[in-house]
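Input record, target 12 of the design panel.
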C-alpha cells in the first residue's frame, strides 16, 4: 500500500471527537440513559474518548463497553470456538446505545454490531458514530455522527491510528496495489 494523504492529524481528531460528543449530548438531551459501545479495536478507544468528554462536559459517568463483532460477521464462516471479547458489563435493555467505530465503509461491521447488541438486550434506540465515513455502503446504514466525510475510491484504504494502540493519532489514505486488489 502506498500512502496518498494524511487526512486528519491529532488536533483534527480531537476536534472531531469533541464535536461528535456535543452532538450526542444535544440529540439525546444530555447523558441520561446513554451508553457508549465501541467496536474493537479502534472504535473502543474513540468510544472511551467520547465517554471521557461527556464526563468533562456534564460530570456524568456514562456506561461504556467494548464490542467484539467477530461471531456476528457475515463474511467469515461463524467460528463456534471464537470466544467474544466483548466487555459490556451493564444491561443495554431500554438504553440509548451509541455504537462507535473508526471507519464506516460497506456497513457490514455496523450491521454485525447491531446484531451483537440485540443478542444481549433490546435498547430503546441505537445510534452510530464514526470518525470517518468513506462511502461505498452495501447495506442501508447511515451514521448519526460523522467526524469527517471522505470520498474515496474502492481501490483505496483508510487507516485510523490512535495513540493508545498505534502510538500516534492520524487518519491516512493509502492506494492499494494491483496485487492487493486481486487478493480482496
Ligand atoms: O463498514 P465496513 O466495510 O464493515 O468497514 C469498516 C470496518 O473495517 C475496519 O475493521 P476491520 O475489519 O478492517 O478490522 P480492524 O478494526 O481490526 O482493523 C474498521 O475498523 C471498521 O470496523
Ligand atoms: O478502507 C477501509 C475499509 C475498511 N475498513 C477500514 O478500516 N478501512
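The sequence produced for target 12 reads:
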Amino acid at each position: 500500500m502506498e500512502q496518498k494523504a494524511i487526512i486528519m492529524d491529532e488536533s483534527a481528531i480531537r476536534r472531531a471527537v469533541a464535536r461528535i460528543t456535543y452532538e450526542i449530548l444535544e440529540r439525546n438531551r444530555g447523558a441520561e440513559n446513554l451508553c457508549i459501545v465501541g467496536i474493537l479495536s479502534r472504535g473502543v478507544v474513540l468510544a472511551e474518548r467520547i465517554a471521557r468528554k461527556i464526563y468533562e462536559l456534564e460530570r456524568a459517568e456514562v456506561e461504556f463497553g467494548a464490542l467484539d463483532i467477530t461471531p456476528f460477521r457475515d463474511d467469515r464462516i461463524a467460528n463456534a470456538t471464537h470466544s467474544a471479547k466483548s466487555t459490556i458489563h451493564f444491561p443495554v435493555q431500554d438504553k440509548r446505545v451509541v455504537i462507535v467505530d473508526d471507519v464506516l465503509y460497506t456497513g457490514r461491521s455496523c450491521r454485525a454490531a447491531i446484531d451483537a447488541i440485540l443478542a444481549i438486550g433490546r435498547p430503546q434506540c441505537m445510534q452510530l458514530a464514526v470518525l470517518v465515513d468513506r462511502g461505498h455502503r452495501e447495506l442501508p446504514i447511515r451514521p448519526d455522527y460523522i467526524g469527517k466525510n471522505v470520498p474515496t475510491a474502492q481501490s483505496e484504504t483508510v487507516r485510523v491510528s490512535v495513540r493508545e494502540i498505534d502510538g500516534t493519532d492520524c487518519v491516512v489514505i493509502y492506494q492499494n496495489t494491483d496485487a492487493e486488489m486481486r487478493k480482496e
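The domain at 11-77+85-151 is CATH 3.40.50.2020 (Rossmann fold).
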